[in-house]
């Protein structure tokens, strides 16, 4: 990238971020030209600082942003084509793998995070986790490494959109469409769970849909081995996941997170797809997570009346707050989804919900027995009080009569 290109990108960035106007950038460019004529070449960054339009710290952040757009062409064997997007932890590029002449996606860890050992280790763990999986509904890992000071992760390039892209436009999925996608992702999760991996971040942004309608689970950045006690101990008490879709046990930072956390998040994702709303809304992430822990879920068919009862029942079981009340395996969940697809009742969900009803009835019966016992004691107390009042009244009447009789027998003086 030439100095001229860097200046062009920097000029656009300072305007986009409202640090200065187009006219002010042009003034800086004029200053640069005048200095160049005097044999004193200056860059746009020098001129912006000299004119006071940016501070040194602002300029440093802008230069880091520009630098992040450059690294993929420095990775041997790959040719950068375009930037696809950026997140909190990485920048993703579309590139060409020269040896096989195919398009791939490359996730690059920004240089500012490369000095953080925890970020680097998590980055490589994602690559290793993805490499253990080989499934048509999971974005395939290809390579991972470091070049020119940048850590990179090469993966399958998926041409298409995410589930979130559609939801962000205010569109919702029909039951049939959503069910087809969810079954594919459930199958992918089952594959991961069989290999001891929990995804821990199932959400609409991490479900990609190809042009042929194939759903692919992406981003293993938070994936963890269920048996990894060392990682569990290190993460204890911290909530890893996305607030709108996170399971209650992840919020509590429990040690023994298992596959049922993914079932909860998949249920929350399905809920969003067919209702157009996240399961719980609140002004802050912590308030949202509190609702996952404490608030009763509004049944999805109460929001979208077009949904079948079967779909609503399955989602409610998937999102049970106690994980023991959720599906015992992805296989059991798949049985219910396929039953609903065929127009049959979800038997596994019915058994779970019936069990809840029996527990509620049992609790209710015990409460009623207690109420009756309390009422009986209360009635006995009231009866005793009434008898005492009657006896006392009778005694008073008798005493009054005795006094009358005695008065009548007294001699008249």
Written overview of the protein:
The structure is a single chain. The chain has 413 residues and is α+β, with helices and mostly antiparallel strands. It folds into 3 domains: 3-68; 71-156, 2-Layer Sandwich (Phosphorylase Kinase, domain 1); 161-345, Transferase(Phosphotransferase) domain 1 (Transferase(Phosphotransferase), domain 1), CATH 1.10.510.10. 54% of the residues lie in helices and 13% in strands. It has 16 helices and 10 strands. The chain has helices at residues 3-16, 22-37, 44-51, 56-68, 111-114, 117-131, 163-168, 175-194, 229-235, 248-251, 259-275, 285-294, 300-303, 309-318, 330-341, 347-409; strands spanning 78-86, 91-97, 102-109, 141-147, 150-156, 160-162, 197-198, 207-210, 215-217, 224-225. Strands 1-2-3-5-4 form a 5-stranded antiparallel sheet. The radius of gyration is 35 Å and the shape is elongated. It starts with a helix and ends with a helix.
Find the count of extended strands (DSSP E, 2+ residues). Answer: 10
What is the typical, i.e. mean, pLDDT?
Answer: 82
Q: Tally the helices.
A: 16
**Pairing-aware structural class of the strands and helices?**
alpha+beta
Morphology call: elongated
Strand order of the largest sheet: 1-2-3-5-4
CATH superfamily of the largest domain: Transferase(Phosphotransferase) domain 1
Helix content: 40-55%
CATH class of the largest domain: Mainly Alpha
CATH architecture of the largest domain: Orthogonal Bundle
- What is the CATH topology assignment of the largest domain? Transferase(Phosphotransferase), domain 1
Q: Report low-confidence residues grouped into runs of 5 or more.
A: 365-369
Rg estimate, integer Å: 35 Å
What is the number of independent domains? 3
> How is the main sheet built?
5 strands, antiparallel
Give, in order, the helices and strands: HHHHEEEHHEEEHHEEEEHHHHHHHH
